[in-house]
Amino acid sequence: MSKKVRVEHLTKIFGRRTQQALEQVKAGKSKQEILKETGATVGVHDVSFDVNEGEVFVIMGLSGSGKSTLVRMINRLIEPTSGSVYIDDEDVAKMSKEDLREVRRTKANMVFQNFGLFPQRTILQNTEYGLEVRGVSKEERRKKAEAALDNSGLLSVKDQYPNQLSGGMQQRVGLARALANDPEVLLMDEAFSALDPLIRRDMQDDLMDLQERVQKTIIFITHDLNEALRIGDRIALMRDGEVMQIGTGEEILTHPANDFVREFTEDIDRSKVLTAENIMEPALTINAEADGPNVALQRMRKEEISMLLAVDRKRYLKGSLTAENALDARKNEKPLEDVLDKNVQKVEKDTLVTDIFNIIQNSAAPLAVVDEEDRVVGVVVRGSVIGAMTDTDTGQADEKETAEGNTDETTESADKEEVNANA
């Protein structure tokens, strides 16, 4: 996957004694120490990261964390004190004003929190504006603007004015205007923060749907962790101008880099972020095409279980096999295929835990977890789901899973005894 944007050791210091403050930054002094000694404020401190082409990369943090300063340095709305920003291997920080203007017009467009629409222009005219500034012909810019509005579901209101639209629709226009320029990178600074919660969620859905169609590289700024987890492929979490951790939502929740990240994420509902892949266990299987009931019973006895998943040679799911059915197959000399339960429920490995709960609560058996090609990669048991939904501490989740497992063992003890006696 190619790197679309590279940020290397980016630093921004506000104030007069920037050189002295920069030296102190390099010496490892804190933001507070530098402010006290120089009067200068460190907005961003030695930040580095890459953004992949087509990725939604979220930069998040509380007010004053430096996230908005950081995104504005990417297109040099704010001049960096030191460091580099590369878009397609071109250093934005060293560009001439003319080259920078061209980058802002064609490569990296920005969507702001306050929409930035012209009240005297129609929705179509607002959407055409960036193309108009670039000198695109009237016919061509109208065609591109209408296509962008159509993509955003706004073509029917193209002749209306901003004050005739709701806040959510105005923000859609702002997004459509940016997309009309067909930018390679879209910078979104708290783009949905001014919207009501329900409208904000709709805009998040719209952005994700739009991204599926247009596949832009998006750098999205937010202070809302739930929003970051919902739309971001990866997240950079900032504090006091520094990046605390970069990773997927799952990585940040399951492996916080430090106490700050752990505390920041402790109230998040993990069931809406963690997936089957995070909580699954190795699948104990039998090859239904090659193995017989004796092999199945022996494996059950060794593993002290009373059920196996049956797969073919390529690990495609064929069904489940209980100890009772394996004993029946051996007694009556039946092939395993004849005694399999074909109604095994399965989930894809990226299925959210909250969705798995609705499935597994009505299932007596574990769920099979399959990959993109529908091959078995693991199983999910009820205890793992309950642990993921109720605990923020891994150790507690493990204890609950063990307790749940002991309960399952009790209900299956009769089957185990029969297997051990007859296998």
Plain-language structure description:
With 423 residues, this protein is α/β, with parallel strands linked by helices. Among the domains are: 120 residues, Rossmann fold; 147 residues, CBS-domain. The chain is built from 17 helices and 16 strands. A six-stranded mixed β-sheet has the order 6-7-8-3-9-10, sandwiched between helices. The longest helix is centred in the last third of the chain and has 29 residues. It is globular and about 85 Å long. The relative contact order is 0.09. The C terminus is likely disordered. It is found in: Cell inner membrane. It comes from Tetragenococcus halophilus subsp. halophilus. Pfam families: ABC_tran, CBS. It catalyses: a quaternary ammonium(out) + ATP + H2O = a quaternary ammonium(in) + ADP + phosphate + H(+). This is Quaternary amine transport ATP-binding protein.
What would you say about this model in short?
The chain contains 17 helices and 16 strands.
Features:
four-stranded antiparallel beta sheet; 423 residues; disordered C terminus; alpha/beta; ATP hydrolysis activity; 43% helix; nucleotide-binding; amino-acid transport; 17 helices; CBS-domain; six-stranded mixed beta sheet; transport; Rossmann fold
